[in-house]
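Example for tutorial group B:
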């Protein structure tokens, strides 16, 4: 009996260590998270915040501050923030230009507002940020691709 519980403890410990060391993967980043019946509305919703340099910098400050996004998505947007490393599926990698190509701003906004069920991405409007702040952050998240070499190449 003692032997068995020792084995059990060892297995539990290994699973725990494994979860931290082997970071999880993203769940298909090219598949939209917006339910079918709301998808066309979401796609048509335009970002009311202009994508100026000044607004992108505001987005960065919100991403790394009040919005707490960096905790999971990482300061460089790679989805590898300290809290993100233990999440399964892992947070979106915003440096992936293929992901940005597949999504309209309104679809990103939908997820920030409603969350993505069954993942660490919970609804953050109005819990952490306002709607306008979310649109501002979206402009910054786009910049992770747009300012990368890959993003410049496909412009
Ligand atoms: C607790 C961790 C956590 C925090 C904090 C967090 N996210 Fe996420 N986020 C995730 C995870 C996990 C996913 C992947 C969800 C999925 O695969 O469906 C995700 C996905 C996303 C997506 C992708 C939606 C899509 O269409 O695929 C966007 C956009 C996003 N987050 C924006 C934000 C913004 C903006 C903030 C800050 C205001 C933020 N997140 C804070 C964990 C987090």
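The residue assignment follows.
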């Amino acid at each position: 009996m003692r032997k068995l519980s020792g084995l059990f403890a060892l297995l539990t410990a290994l699973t725990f260590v494994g979860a931290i060391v082997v970071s999880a993967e993203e769940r298909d980043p090219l598949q939209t998270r917006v339910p079918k019946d709301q998808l066309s509305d979401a796609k048509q919703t335009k970002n009311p915040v202009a994508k100026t340099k000044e607004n992108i910098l505001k987005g960065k400050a919100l991403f790394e501050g009040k919005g707490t996004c960096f905790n999971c998505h990482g300061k460089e947007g790679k989805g590898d923030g300290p809290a993100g490393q233990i999440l399964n599926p892992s947070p979106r990698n915003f440096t992936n230009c293929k992901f940005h190509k597949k999504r309209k701003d309104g679809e990103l906004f939908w997820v920030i507002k409603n969350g993505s069920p069954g993942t660490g991405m919970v609804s953050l409007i109005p819990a952490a940020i306002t709607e306008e702040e979310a649109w501002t952050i979206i402009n910054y998240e786009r910049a992770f691709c747009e300012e990368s070499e890959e993003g410049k190449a496909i412009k």
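The chain has a mean pLDDT of 90. Compare this with the pattern of hydrophobic and polar residues in the output above.
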